[in-house]
Amino acid sequence: MPVKYWIIASLVLISSSCSAQVQNDKSQSFSMADKNHDGKISFDEFDVYVRDYLRKKNNFESSGFFILSHTTQEEVLKDRFNKMDVGHKGYLLPNEWKR
């Protein structure tokens, strides 16, 4: 399959996966992602959280993400992070995590 297809599929997966997790317990998932407990989620924290979440999910959809090259995975994650980051300040606040 073309890489473009996997990028689109991965964006959808990350969006739905993050949304599902956030809806389960928004404050708990934010706290889990905020590793240094500074009240905001950096891209690095987001990257670690999403990759860990997808690894634990271990299903067909998450496997699609992990067959992408590391560079493409980074692009997918950065795109999703930037869409959530209102004002493009480089971090997510709790109200942006809920989106």
Task: Explain what you see.
Helices cover 72% and strands 4% of the residues. It has a single domain (3-97), classed as Recoverin, domain 1 (Orthogonal Bundle), CATH 1.10.238. 18% of the residues are buried. With 99 residues, the protein is mainly α. It has six helices and two strands; from the N terminus they run ααβαααβα. The longest helix has 22 residues, at 3-24. A two-stranded antiparallel sheet has the order 1-2.
**What is the count of DSSP helices, taking H or I runs of 4+ residues?**
6
Low-confidence stretches: none
What's the end-to-end separation, in Å?
31 Å
For the largest beta sheet, what order do the strands appear in spatially?
1-2
- Radius of gyration using CA atoms only: 13 Å
Q: How many E-type strands?
A: 2
Assigned CATH superfamily: EF-hand
The total number of structural domains is 1
Largest sheet: 2 strands, antiparallel
SSE pattern, N- to C-terminal: HHEHHHEH
What class do helices, strands and sheet pairing give?
A: mainly alpha
CATH hierarchy class name: Mainly Alpha
Overall outline: globular
Helical percentage: over 70%
Provide the β-strand percentage band: under 5%
Give the name of the CATH architecture: Orthogonal Bundle
CATH topology: Recoverin, domain 1
Mean pLDDT: 82
